[in-house]
Amino acid sequence: MRSILLGFAAGVVLLHQLPALPAGAFFAAAGLFGLALATIGRLRPWLGLPAGVLLGLAFAGWSAGAALAHRLPAELEGETLHVEGRITGLPRSEGYRSVFVFRPQRFPGAKLPHPPRHLRLSWYDPPPGLRAGQHWTFEVRLKRPRGLMNPGAFDYERWLFTQRIDAVGYVREAGTMRPGAPGVDRFRQSLGE
Description:
about 190 residues, alpha+beta, 5 helices
């Protein structure tokens, strides 16, 4: 059992060293083959390590693929989209703009098989009183997350991926606003003020 767990961890680390994510069929085959080796490994303990590596690869690949499926489709980059949802986290004011994370609930008029889970939006000249938990209807312009690939520099795209932000953009026009229900983020914002 210990060798399977060690192999699993090695498989997860191995996936993060690959330059690109292989196709989903590769991970399905790795998972099935890993399960078969783990079953046989009961009789031959030396098969535990390769079984764990294959299972770790399959699990990490499936997780990464599921996360990347929610990225904004390339054909919608730069298009004006309507979105309804709520502000999560604490909006940060930078003088002339506010930056916040927005959790969309609907994209009226857009056909998205896997809609983005979180958007990082900038709102230039926002109204005062932008608060966590508020429900808004926006007209936004979005793009896929990307960052510079300089060695040793801050990896913005990776940071967005770890924060589960699937698109970045800005508010073009605001629609209706409803105050949200009390929650942890609103309490945090009250404490900060």
